[in-house]
Amino acid sequence: MALEKRGNKRYMSFAVFLDVDGVLNTRKTVISSPDGHIGVDDARIEILAGAIEKYGGGDIVLTSDWKNVRIGGDLDYLRDKLMGYNLEISAVTKEHWNKRGQGIQDYLEEHPKIDEYIILDDNRFDFEDFPRLWERLLITDGIENAAFASKTPAVEAIIFREYIKELS
Fold it and tell me: Distance of CA 104 to CAs 54, 84, 128, 135, 167, Å?
């Protein structure tokens, strides 16, 4: 499903809009990052990697505040941890932390090749202002506890959540 255009055929492109805190860690995480913040849990990264693989691959777009930390510290730590599971951050959104929905909406408008996507976050921010985003939002308290934000979730959110549950 995370495919591209080849010849005259058009293939689906899939993206995961990823928050870190509350998705790849929780308040119970005991690992620290190099800069002394809460680190990320390998088991949760493994679940993310497995779900993306089962979905057919996809790009990770970082929406987390982690994108604003200095290079050489926590952001490099995050990249290294993800690489350990053959994952990499493809891009980042550009919004301020409390306007994540707007940031994702802007990113999608700039990248029309993305046909399918899900959002992993532990906060609701302004997502409800964007119905298509709201249907694809999985609210987390650790990725293994992903729940639908919407009462009518999009198909990709349903499928991705099932993969998470299988791997948890």
Answer: 23, 26, 12, 13, 27
